[in-house]
Amino acid sequence: xxxxxxxxIIVDDEPLALDVLSSLIARVPxxxxxxxYTDPFLAxxxxxxxxxxxxxxxxxxxxxxxxxxxxxxTNPPKVVFTTAYSSYAVEGFNLNxxxxxxxxxxxxxxxxxxxxxxxxxxxxxxxxxxxxTEEKKVPDYMFxxxxxxxxxxxxxxxxxIEGCEDYIRIHTTTKKVMTLLSMKNVMEKLPEQQFIRxxxxxxxxxxxxxxxxxxxxxxxxxxxxxxxxxLNEVTKRLYR
Length: 240
Known about the structure:
five-stranded antiparallel β-sheet; 7 helices; LytTR_DNA-bd_dom; five-stranded parallel β-sheet; 240 residues; Rossmann fold; CATH 2.40.50.1020; 2 domains
């Protein structure tokens, strides 16, 4: 997360205050200033069209306070309030502000605030990435019933699957397993990117294919037929 960039904007009715904050932001490598506004309504429009990670906003402004501005936002970014009046601190924190900076703002105090924001965003993004990874994670094995037992089959061990009359035979690198599944049912259990059906009676592991002719697939010592209705799909998958 060292390369994380935090997009931010500043809202303050005093141009000098904007200059001070923009100079502080420029000293922090991971902060990216995307706008600075003396008009809070223009800032609100910016946030509506271009969401950012962090908002620096002055509390005391003529037309609308910083607190009122934040309350109007449907999905507010993280907020650091700035003001010359310490009496606003409690109300600011009631809006779950990340920090509250009292003017004049020293660089040390500013850095403490933005580091707090960075730490929060890093943890939040890491947690979200973890959730997404778990959602995308799929099992690399399946269990099938064979001889009154549940037998674990690792997908990486499968060479090919042979469909018989009322059962299938799974040929792996170490064993053969018979189970009462249809070809359709077992195909639904297999990772689509790793397996392909080449015949009404055969499903093969793509990475185990050693060669292909117009009508046959070779896996180890086995030469398996390619059904005419499967030929186009097999060719497309193997040569894409």
